[in-house]
Amino acid sequence: MIPFYLPYVNDDIIDNLIETIKSGWITTGPQVKILQEEIAIITGVNHVLCVNSASSALTLALHWFGVKPGDEVIIPAYTFAATALSVLHLGAKPIMVDIKDDFCIDTANLASAITEKTKAIIPVDIAGLPCDYNEIYDVVNSKEIRSKFQPLGDNQKKLGRILILSDAAHSLGAKYHGRPTGSLADISVFSFHAVKNISSAEGGAICINLPQPFDNKKIYDFLRVVSFNGQTKDAYAKTMGAEWKYDIIYPGYKINMPDILASIAVAQIQVYKKKLLPRRKEIFSLYDKAFENYDWAIAPPTRTKKKETSYHVYLLRIKDITESQRDFIIEEIFRNGVSVNVHFQPLPMLTVFKNLGYKIEDYRLSYKNYSIEISLPVYPQLTNENISYIVECVVKAYNKVLGKK
Ligand SMILES: Cc1ncc(COP(=O)(O)O)c(C=O)c1O
User: Fold this and answer.
1) Which residues line the pocket of ligand 1, CB cutoff 6 A?
2) pLDDT tens by residue, 371-386
């Protein structure tokens, strides 16, 4: 069986993990600090806070901006549930917008989705391809949209417009107009969940990149406190001399990342740009080349004049098939020993969102892309032979289900 995903583990990762366990310090401490510094190097954003997941990072960012019941936050209909749940957790309403053919939120539909209640937009870099950030900023900075913004609280007043919070869970290492993800929005969130390009098993990071007059260092310090129950000192700081006394200055969350998890990601991220990302790119090229021979195969958008993906998920689409034909193709591929996936079921197809009144009929392209999509395995340990075999299985399954040959 070829699994859909395998975490990247080598001796350096095992050594760093064991060293961390033996060091006597396993929760938030020096390894998290190193991981934050490595992300800062990749993104060019100086203030990066690691937390326990991208889900909690999104919630924390919206909480910081003062999103509350009665507010609206715009998200794409085509994403993982965590994007929408972060909005629901704050009692606000997700306003779903359809996507374009390239899976990114359709910026042409943004302005009409914005109301006086809109506080944030969460573009999602699906599969690692950055959204159209320039267009998104053009919309929120336009006179008409700015005049609709009704700020409440210091942070909203200071920004004076809708917050752009990038769900970059998939896109560490991607580029937009030559600029790295993490630096493309006011705040960006990465995920280090088990199947991501860099993984700490579970984890997330917040890149704080707010414009003047915000003091991003101050915001980092504040969010760090909020992520530690609102304590003025984390456990590590308390071990430094007679530093036992602390205060609780904010009703915070407990969402810090432990060193034991950070140590896995630290050892991976140090070889990400030189080794892991280039191999992912090679795997995409091998798939692209193989599927060029089949006029029914649509390769995913990976590189345009403006964008380059992080090569996170290979979103293969198959022309002119129905959702159930796609499901049969997936079953056939599994039968031949390859595990594939679908990214994603659009949110209006899931029970929680259906019960809230969202209807898939309102999101034509989200449904279309979903119904013809199959995500193929991408991870550095795959060999070229594995890729050939996966392609062979897809072709065989297509021919069988569509009755060709
Ligand atoms: C687009 C997107 N956003 C957010 C998340 C949440 O990430 P995490 O599992 O780190 O909370 C995921 C997880 O897969 C995701 O795919």
Assistant:
1) 53-55, 79-80, 82-83, 124, 167, 169-170, 191, 193, 204
2) 999 999 999 999 999 9
Top mutation candidate among 80, 165, 350 for ligand 1, by most atoms within 8 Å of CB: 80
Do 298 and 332 belong to one domain?
A: yes
5 in a domain, yes or no? Answer: no
Q: How many domains does the chain have?
A: 2
Mean pLDDT of the chain: 97
Which ligand 1 atom minimizes the distance to the CA of 195? 14
**Residue finishing a domain among 217, 239, 269:** 269
Sheet with 314-318, edge to edge strand ranges: 297-298, 314-318, 373-376
Give the 3-state secondary structure of residue 303: strand
Would you call 359 helix, strand, or coil by DSSP? Answer: coil
255/314 same-domain check: no
Task: Give the number of the atom of ligand 1 that is nearest the alpha carbon of residue 58.
Answer: 4
Looking at the structure, do residues 80 and 150 belong to the same domain, yes or no? yes
Give me the CATH number covering residue 320.
3.90.1150.10
CB 346 within 8 A of CB 366: yes
pLDDT in tens, 159-201: 999 999 999 999 999 999 999 999 999 999 999 999 999 999 9
